[in-house]
Structure formats: C-alpha cells, structure tokens
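Sanity check

After download, print the first record. It should look like this:
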Amino acid sequence: MSEAANPTGPVTPPRLPDRKKSKTGWIVSGLVVAVAVIVAVSLIIVNLTTAKPVHAAGVKPVVIKIGTSDTSQPYWGILKKKAAANGITLEVVGFSDYQQPNPALQQKQTDLNSFQHLRFLAQYNVDTGNDLEPIASTIIVPLGLYSQKWKSVTSIPAGGTIAIPNDPSNQARALFMLQSAKLLTLKGDRFAPTPADIDASKSKVKVVTVDAAQTVLSLPSVDGSVINNNFLTDAKIDPHSAIFADDPKSPGAQPYINLIVARAADINNPKYLELAKLYHDPEVLKAVAASSKGTGVVVTGYSGKQLRALLKKIEAQVKANK
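Expected structure tokens:
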C-alpha cells in the first residue's frame, strides 16, 4: 500500500504557507529600512537648511538698532534688505521728537542714530558734555516756510506771526532763513541768534517758538510755520509747497549736513561702518533723494574723520557764542 493511500503515514507539509510568510517578513523589513532612510535624509536636509550656510559663508549676523524720526520713509526697507544680505539685522527705532534720539544713543538703547545735522549735534554735545560723533553723511534738506493762509512771502501781512522750532540750532537756522525772506531783521552778526536778536522796528513779522514736532500742528493758527523736512511726510505736506526755503546747495549749508551718529567709542566699529557704507548704496541713495521729492541734496565725499573735524569746529563756535 502506498503512503498516499495510508492516512496514518507521514505527510509532507505544504510549502506555500512558508513562502507567503517569508515574503511578508521581507516586506516589513523593507518598510522599516525605508522609513529609517527617510528619517535620516530628512535630518540631513534640516541640518543643511538651518544655520550651516551662514557659518559656512563666514557671516555672523549682528543686530544694529538705529534711532530716527522718520521711520515711515521707504528707504529704510531697502537698507534693511541690503543689511540682511550682509549679515546685519537692522532695527529702526522711531522717536517722536528731536530731544529723544541722542539720550537714547548715549544710554545704549540704540547703537546709532540718523535724524540730525552737524549744527544740532554740536549744540547737543556742548550743552550736555557728551561726545557723540558722526561716522557718515546722509543728506542736506532745505528748511522751508509753509502757510495755509498765504500763497507767497509778500502776501504775509505786517505784524503776522511765524512759528519756528525752539531747539537752538534749528531756531537759529529758521531766523536766518526768515531774514533771507525779508520778513525780519536780526541785530548784529551772531552765530546762533535767538528771537531776542530780532530788530522789531525793522521786521515785518514776529515769531513764536514751539517744539519742532508742533510746527505742523501750528499751521492753522499762524501766518506761517517753519517745518523741518522730517515732519512733512507724516503730515502729507509736499516740500515743493514751501513759500520760501533756504538753499541746501549753498556754502552756508555745510553745518546742516545730516549724519549717521555713533558713540565716540564706536566710531570704528566695523559693522557700523559697513552699515554706513550700505546707506550710500546707489539704490538706497536714490530712495533717500526721493524722500525729499528732489528738494534735498545727497551728501557724498566726506569721510567720518572729515565730518568729525567739522563737528569740532562748530562745537568751538557754539561754545564761543554761549
């Protein structure tokens, strides 16, 4: 009798189930390996796309805070992008009036500022005993006389009132400008005249001093107001609408070169100097010029050393005229 016919005899186990079990094991093992490979590749990609490119390029990002009174100007956005491409995170800190940025810089709340001209900085240093110093020039903008009541200087009536900034440097500049407009006459030849130096008997108008930030708000209540360029943009006043302005291209305008300013200990900081250089990038300067609608003059050709020499000269004049 054959083994096939004998139910109690030995039977060879079927092979098909064994082959299925082997394939399933291989599939599971393959999936595990695939997942491991995916995880490993993901980790490599994450590492390659994080901080490694910055270090590989040798760029160490640094944060620079710059104080200004005109944060709304488009050129700040352009400068931020150029700074970021050079490893600098630029933070633009806004101030509402001219009396705030310099103390903030002195107290290290900011690293630099850009809002003032040489004459203003000289006055600040002399008055406070501090030693803030310029590292670069920016622009000279005209100081203009604006009016909501009159279309020309000759239309302003005798006895009219003109509002001017009350800080010493801009006050003096405003008085010189009003004298050029033949609205008033100053006594003598003072370096820094005040309203007390007005010859009332020979003057067509009288002046009232207000905080520089208030010169715009004073417009409805006076015959004219002398307004710094920084405050025109927010007030939506076209600088071309001035009924009179001084000439930023004249030799006498040199004390009104606007600046990027640092603490004396930081004038050679390489990152600050790099940012100052980026400010003079053609694209930035084009936007800076546009901010004054073509009324300002971009200032180039002055080194930090030259600007500091001019500052010392003006400081000496301020001290001599105290």
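If your output differs, re-run the checksum step. Summary of this record's structure: The longest strand covers residues 62-68.
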